[in-house]
Amino acid sequence: MKKNLLKSIFLLLISAVLVSSAFAAKKDKNAKPKVKKLYVGVGNAYKPYCYIDEKGKPAGYELEVLKAIDELLPEYEFEFEATEFASLFSSLSQKKYDVIAQQIEYNPDRASKYEFTKETYTTFVTYITVPERIQGVSSLEDLSGKTAIEPPGDNGIWYLEDFNKKHPGKEIKIDIVSVSTDETVAGLNSGRWDFAVRTKRDVQELNEKYNAHLKITGKPIQQSSTYFLFQKGNIELRDAFDSAIRQLKSSGKLRQISIDVIGGDYTESE
């Protein structure tokens, strides 16, 4: 009798352990993975890529691509903040942001400080941009002694500085200023600045929306692509973004976002 009682207690204990283990396993299986918040900095004044909409919220191509990436990375939750382009880099260095975006191109100085995605998501081809009345300009060599307007932090500054180093005696002046689009257009047409470095789609928008009377001239002076940037050494996050960008490319979604927001497919070639 005593032996049977002990056997029954033992079996009950075993059953309890098995039920408890099964419940714990089921609980672990249904548990949601831990989500990490990512702070994402984007520009605020480069329409249609990144700007503040009429509701005061970040909008544009960069945002739509980032939202699509967010959907593919359930382990992260993106929080967006729009700011001036030049401050994106310092904020990333200070670890205020985990990711920054505004049609950012590669250059060696940036590569020494930040981590770039290996995958690109937009092509970026720039041309000499001058008022329609200007004739006889087909290359930077034709602009020796002339003045270019460049916004702070723009990759065009690096390119023009590199041109000056390689062409002593034919240097171009670079006026690095932060002004409104209206001021840029007025300054180019008044002769305050002689030229700018812009993409075809930038010039088209300036002419359509601001009646700018600008044109591109000559062959492309710079052909590059755009990347997302991370704090130096953050390979795990970079690889996650690269994987998501590849998925967006293969599914055709990246191309569709470009068409819907920018007005054409600028994901592979211009």
Q: Compute the number of helices.
A: 9
Uncertain regions: pLDDT < 50 for 5+ in a row? none
Overall residue-averaged pLDDT value: 89
Radius of gyration: 27 Å
| Total E-strand runs | 13
Helix content range: 40-55%
Strand percent estimate: 25-35%
Side by side, the strands of the main sheet go 5-1-6-13-7
- Structural class, by secondary structure, is alpha/beta
First-last Cα distance: 89 Å
Major sheet summary line: 5 strands, mixed
- Label the overall shape: globular
Sequence of secondary-structure elements: HEEEEHEHEHEEEHEHEHEEHH
Describe what this molecule looks like in 3D.
Strands 5-1-6-13-7 form a five-stranded mixed β-sheet, sandwiched between helices. Strands 10-9-11-8-12 form a five-stranded mixed β-sheet, with helices on both faces. It has a three-stranded antiparallel β-sheet with strand order 2-3-4, covered by helices on one side. It is α/β, with parallel strands linked by helices and 270 residues long. Helices cover 43% and strands 26% of the residues. It is globular, with a radius of gyration of 27 Å. The mean pLDDT is 89. The termini are far apart.
